[in-house]
Amino acid sequence: MKWRGRRGSSNVRDARGQRMVRGSGGLALIANLVLRMFGLKGILVLAVIGIVGWQMGLINPLALTGGNQVEQVQYEPTPEEEQLFQFVKVVLADTEDIWTRELVRVGMQYQPPELVIYRDQYPTGCGVGSARAGPFYCPADQTIYIDLSFYNDLERQFGAPGDFAQAYVIAHEVGHHIQKLLGLTDKVSAMRGRPDYNQYSVRLELQADFLAGVWAHHNSRYLERGDIEEAMRAANQIGDDAIQSRTQGKVVPHAFTHGTSEQRMRWFNKGWESGRIEDGDTFQVPYDRL
């Protein structure tokens, strides 16, 4: 993929120099102790002290309530990691340009997501993000989160090297943001708990693959020989059947949440060939024909 020297997105937040600190949950212990020793009057005094301390910046309520916070730490990325950071910014910028044009075509205004690059763990609107979970989109705060070490796993563990395989991962998560803007994410989320919920999760994931393909279609002037094959190889390696076979030694179709390798490749390719958001309605296709 031709990316060097091109515009990088301003919607990327570098959180690699931040470390998550879990709160101690000490507020409940303090309040219980004060209540036992001084009664309700003591609790009222404690509340006043807490409010004044918070307003003066002397008390961090997250640290007392058990919430998660981040603290700044010294971090120096390697030249290779910094290059990857710049690459991700260019990929996100490409998605911004393309989806701004495409959503205008269907009568919508694009609101780009933020992308946070973190290390190890990070607090998000969807709970604590973990590098072990891989990249993900959080609908609650409309933000994409990624630990760049995932790309090492993509190459070594999943056997899917290449810069366009890395770009496909970002484009897939941006596809989830498009679904959020279209209202599809909330509809599927409302089905959580139903016996057929996993089927709707598969539909959502395959559509995100389709949308990644649409992005690739409109980004073709920057592609190089072998790029589409890299994306297809990545889609193949992260299908539910491939992952289950690799980790469990067997395939359990009713537990699928993302679709099979064949489905993920096919829907990405469908988007690549079509280039039209209208052609990717995975919710109108019978489940056994996805």
Describe this structure in words.
By secondary structure, this protein is of the alpha/beta class. The chain has 2 domains: 24-66, no CATH class; 74-289, no CATH class. It contains 10 helices and 8 strands. The strands form 3 sheets. Strands 1-4-8-7 form a 4-stranded mixed β-sheet, covered by helices on one side. A hairpin with a 4-residue loop joins strand 7 and strand 8 (143-146). It is globular.
Summarize the structure.
This protein is an alpha/beta fold and 290 residues long. The chain has helices at residues 26-55, 61-65, 79-105, 150-156, 163-182, 184-189, 197-218, 227-237, 240-248, 261-274; strands at 12-14, 18-22, 68-72, 114-117, 121-124, 127-130, 136-138, 143-146. It folds into two domains: 24-66, no CATH class; 74-289, no CATH class.
* Main sheet summary: 4 strands, mixed
For the largest beta sheet, what order do the strands appear in spatially?
1-4-8-7
- Terminus-to-terminus distance: 29 Å
Q: Could you estimate the helical fraction of the residues in percent?
A: 40-55%
> Which parts are unreliable, with pLDDT below 50 for 5 consecutive residues or more?
none
Structural class: alpha/beta
Instruction: Give the number of DSSP strands.
Output: 8
Determine Rg (CA atoms, Å).
Answer: 22 Å
What percent strand? 5-15%
Q: What characteristics describe this protein?
A:
single chain; 290 residues; alpha/beta; 2 domains; two-stranded antiparallel sheet
